[in-house]
Write a structure and sequence with these properties.
alpha+beta, 6-stranded antiparallel sheet, 4 helices, about 20% strand, globular
Length: about 170
């Protein structure tokens, strides 16, 4: 079972964010969550999340063999499966996949995040992803918990992030 502390932290994240369309975006920030279907799942079931930074970088946490029957059986039985972090780089002009429903971030004059800050955020995110060596578990360590910890690490790197969730 997830700990009460973890649920409070996750709820706290949504307290400081806003939801627009089917993407979650931190106020005046090029950082957002994007919902998508599970790999091999129905396109209408948007339960998987990815972190998108500046519409150019996608950070995703997925099972190594997502469509394997063995992986699916283990996940249904709430067992951990091997997983990997994917870092996808794309041009800002590239359109979103049909499977991704994404809120288009429009820059405005109030946005205080410049290109130098974005470089720092990308470096932090890549460092986090390189160090993140966890199995995927539907209840304890999944795409949502990965996204939450990644966003915390990007925004608050000095506080440190624990990769382990209390059980």
């Amino acid at each position: 079972m997830m700990s009460f502390r973890y649920l409070l932290l996750f709820a706290g994240f949504f307290y400081v964010t806003k939801v627009e369309a089917l993407g979650v975006q931190v106020f005046d920030h090029p950082l957002k969550l994007t919902l998508s279907p599970l790999i091999g799942g129905p396109s209408w079931m948007l339960v998987h999340c990815k972190v998108v930074l500046d519409d150019s970088y996608i950070f995703d946490f997925v099972p190594l063999k997502a469509t394997s029957t063995e992986t699916i059986q283990k996940m249904i039985q709430l067992q951990a499966v091997p997983a990997k972090v994917q870092i996808i780089r794309r041009s800002k002009r590239q359109k979103n996949d049909d499977n991704d429903i994404n809120y288009k971030h429009e820059k405005n004059d109030n946005n205080n995040v410049n290109d130098e800050n974005i470089k720092v955020f990308v470096e932090r995110a890549e460092q986090f992803c390189q160090e993140y060596d966890q199995d995927l578990h539907l209840l304890q360590n999944n795409c949502w918990s990965f996204a939450y910890e990644l966003i915390l690490y990007i925004l608050y790197p000095k506080k440190g992030v624990s990769f382990k969730i209390d059980k």
